[in-house]
Amino acid sequence: MKLVISAAAMFLFSTASLAKTCEIKVEANDQMQYNVKEIVVEKGCTEVNLTLKATGKLPKSAMGHNIIISTDKDMPAIIADGIKAGLVKDYHVAGDARLVAATKLVGGGESVSTTFKTSALKSGENYVFFCSFPGHSGIMKGTVVIK
Ligand code: CO
User: Fold this and answer.
1) Span from the CA of 65 to the centroid of ligand 1 (angstroms)
2) Among candidate residues 41, 37, 40, 129, the one with its CA nearest the CA of residue 78
3) Are strands 101-102 and 38-41 parallel, antiparallel or unpaired?
4) Average pLDDT of span 109-122
5) By the 8 A CB rule, do 62 and 134 touch?
6) Rounded CA separation 27/55 (Å)
7) pLDDT tens across 49-99, in order?
8) Nearest 5°: phi and psi at 65?
């Protein structure tokens, strides 16, 4: 009995010591710009809590922003499908397997967060982040790197 308990305790301890949630914060403004060109995920992070803050004043219907993370290859199709989904769906298809992460759309003064597992980022792929609001991703995009 003692042995069983200590093995369970060791398992819990090792799981807790391996899990690490990292906080990443990005801002977007009314000039259709993020404040970063690169999102850096540290190697030790098992999970990322990603927060987007819209620092402008315009409503999301006019100058909405979100953050989508995907491979660079998947980006054009995700944007096309997002436009079909429309504003009410935050310009992305919830549950789309190509999405590593996707926040809801926010307007000026609003914030939104999402959490994703870093195991979704496969080595040998190039990952990008972008805003899927129609017409924004030409400027509102950057790279996601693991360091
Ligand atoms: Co935008």
Assistant:
1) 3
2) 129
3) unpaired
4) 96
5) no
6) 7
7) 999 999 999 999 999 999 999 999 999 999 999 999 999 999 999 999 999
8) -135, 145
The Å distance, Cα 50 to ligand 1 centre, comes to 16
Distance 36 CA to ligand 1 centre (A): 14
Distance (Å, whole) CA 114 – CA 92: 14
CA 37 – CA 15 distance, rounded (Å): 33
pLDDT band at 18 (very low <50, low <70, confident <90, very high): confident
Distance from residue 141's CA to the centre of ligand 1 (Å): 9
**pLDDT over 90 percentage in the chain:** 86
Alpha carbon distance, N-terminus to C-terminus of the chain: 43
Residue 22 token pair: 């990292």
Q: What would the DSSP string read from start to end of the chain?
A: -HHHHHHHHHHHHHHHHH--EEEEEEEE-TTS-BS-SEEEEPTT-SEEEEEEEE-SSS-HHHH-B--EEEETTTHHHHHHHHHHH-GGGTTS-TT-TT-SEEPPPB-TT-EEEEEEEGGGS-TT--EEEE--STTTTTTSEEEEEE-
